């Protein structure tokens, strides 16, 4: 081929092109091949074979040994930005050898370069360990990031807060399991629970049937080609006649006669309606496996009452949500709410924008009032979109809020029509009326005080014996909607 050996550049990321081409060690073709071997091996977490020496085995041998001593392959495992930086610095230090000669003998020059390589990577990896990079891999795919940008994020205060939040998740396995079950896009891998000896009859609901409404000429699927006089349906080829001095007359004649070639379109609307002719079905089939693992709508209470241990748990939930979303390729939207007008809505995707949204939350201090109606309404609007149709809403709060009847009615409509489920995480000592009325199920973090920074309380400590204090001591205060959760 006429472009040999430069055709090998196609297999390499652009960041390593220049150092590979200008390095003075060995032959150019061998350097290009060895650079690809080093990148593949480092991303796999190992050192490449000794034969990948860039054409200078004597000089690369001490550099390769130092890379192993500093555990650079383990750090670069699954982190392309770090692997590329290792290869770039290897080639740069190999090229330094000729600059030190003839002032130094070759052996002394190689030793000096090896010492520089060691000092440079000791500084680069200071304060960085495998846990940081493992957490980063769990949160998304950041193969496009450069090493300097990646290292800047890993050394930020927000990242340190994210790491502390991830460490707290090890003490909250039930909360992690709850987040993994959110959504209704596929069947659960877990078998359904066994029915009890005297099962309680499930409430019945009307069966639904799909009713299609077809709207001819409405924007939608293209079904064919036909003659038309409507310019919005006209094929692009017909418009070319307008630029011709003679054919534009033909265009006007065809338009007047309705003989322009155009697209035939049809919109199809599907509406689920109750079917009285079909038998009623139980709301929850006893032997069916529940739907889970769908998109996640995460509503975090960032009011002043959440400061301290509740704030730490809320941030840990955000880490778990993004990790679960990246692991299964699920969508995740953060709705952080405080007082009126204090609403942060960001998508926690697997890319750089999703990571930045998470770090913004990690660096945020919780303060202000509590307005839960706005995030609830935003979640209701989201589940009407195709992307979030099978999402579940997870509300993390200490429960110090309430909703007006209109918002609760909209929430009930979304439950009945769209199957929306609302899960609550209570970071406090008791269920409030607001939390009871909004959520279908409530997970109580009983020992939330132990997650305060510098807390010395024993694991599992709680000054109350039950989260349902309102139901126990003020049963008449519960609305019919809130009374669903009454129990120990």
Report what the structure shows.
There is one protein chain. The protein has 488 residues and is α/β, with parallel strands linked by helices. It folds into three domains: 6-126, no CATH class; 206-282, no CATH class; 291-485, Rossmann fold (3-Layer(aba) Sandwich). Helices cover 41% and strands 16% of the residues. It has helices at 17-22, 28-43, 57-69, 72-76, 80-100, 106-124, 130-139, 147-154, 157-168, 173-180, 236-239, 247-257, 309-328, 352-362, 373-383, 405-418, 433-438, 469-473; strands at 186-187, 204-205, 208-228, 260-274, 281-282, 291-292, 296-301, 332-337, 343-347, 392-397, 422-426, 441-444. Strands 9-8-7-10-11-12 form a six-stranded mixed sheet, sandwiched between helices. It has a two-stranded antiparallel sheet with strand order 1-6. A two-stranded antiparallel sheet has the order 2-5. β8 (332-337) and β9 (343-347) form a beta hairpin. α9 (157-168) packs across α13, α10 packs across α13 and α15 packs parallel to α16 (405-418). The longest helix has 21 residues, at 80-100. 32% of the residues are buried.
**How many domains comprise the coordinates?**
3
Q: How many helix segments?
A: 18
Instruction: Name the helicity range.
Output: 40-55%
Mean pLDDT over all positions:
75
End-to-end distance, in Å?
78 Å
Q: Could you describe the largest sheet, including whether it forms a barrel? A: 6 strands, mixed
Rg of Cα set:
31 Å
